[in-house]
Amino acid sequence: MSSHDEERVKELLRQALKPVESEPESSRDLWPAVLKRLDEPSIQVPWFDWTLLGCLVGLAAFFPASIPVFLYYL
Amino acid sequence: MASAASSATDRLEEFRQGSIDAFEMLFRLHQRAVYGWILRIVRNPSVAEELTVETFWRIYRTHRRFRPEMGFEGWARRIATHAALDWLRTKQSVEVSEEICAEPAAPQAGDPAVTAEIRRKTALAFGRLPPKLRVAATLAVVEELPQKQVAEALGISVATVKVRVFRALRLLRKDLERQGIRP
User: Fold this and answer.
1) How far is it, in rounded angstroms, from Cα B183 to Cα B123?
2) Which domains can be identified in chain B, with CATH numbers?
3) Are B150 and B139 in contact (CB under 8 A)?
4) Tens digit of pLDDT for each residue in A37-59?
């Protein structure tokens, strides 16, 4: 892609997406929600996620060629 | 002046030690900046509010790892960026594209040859990009923030930011060409 093409795509992107105003403000006070969140017990990782992680580690160990594919999608 | 600086340093140190009062002061001081930063990435006010709460929760949870000499703002921005990236990774590209398309850029801005349909297709194609490329391109191209600031927030080098932006633009161009749009 030439630098001219790059500039054209950038310009198109800027026209498609509106930049956020300089000092946006949330619609409500978020401190009570932060306090509530702090009071909640920390989330336990479900067993399924650990199993999935184990499978991925196993796959990477037996098929190292798959590592770049995983890294690409991270 | 010196006393104000000393008080700020004390507050950071108190936060590091787990003081909830110091944390609240830091929250009041930085919540707007953190919210604005997240909004730039996710482009949805209610999600940005939710992620601001998540960010400050992560900040407090890791208070012992905070180093006052490194400053609070950059640290908070980095945690906010990762919280937003985590959210983007859990969303389907179609949902993200709908968020992006909800507020298209003003039609009168820029090239008049670029129709509303082209802008919509561009936003949709942008929503299909991998999140890490999309975040780099959003911050560096759409929001036109300094690449150094983007690099610090993402925890990568400026060179990597440039590579991610280039890859995002290349993929976007290919996607648009597949739809018959020649940028």
Assistant:
1) 13
2) 2-89 (1.10.1740.10), 92-178 (1.10.10.10)
3) yes
4) 998 876 667 788 888 899 989 98
Determine phi and psi for A41, rounding to 5 degrees. Answer: -65, 145
Residue with tokens 């890859």: B167
pTM score, whole prediction: 0.77
Nearest to A73 among B130, B144, B183 (CB): B130
Cα A34–B81–B34 angle (5° rounding)?
A: 50
pLDDT, tens digit, for every residue of B28-74?
A: 999 999 999 999 999 899 999 999 999 999 999 999 988 888 889 99
Q: Among candidates B158, B143, B160, which has minimal Cα distance to B39?
A: B143
Both tokens of residue B146? 């300094």
d(CA B42, CA B46): 10
Residue A26 has its nearest CB partner, among B35, B119, B142, at B35
B12 contact partners, CB below 8 Å, separation of at least 6? B22, B26, B66, B68, B72
The answer, yes or no, to whether ipTM is higher than 0.85 is no
User: Which residues in chain A have their CB less than 8 angstroms from residue B61's CB?
Assistant: 42
Q: Is the pLDDT of residue B101 over 60?
A: no
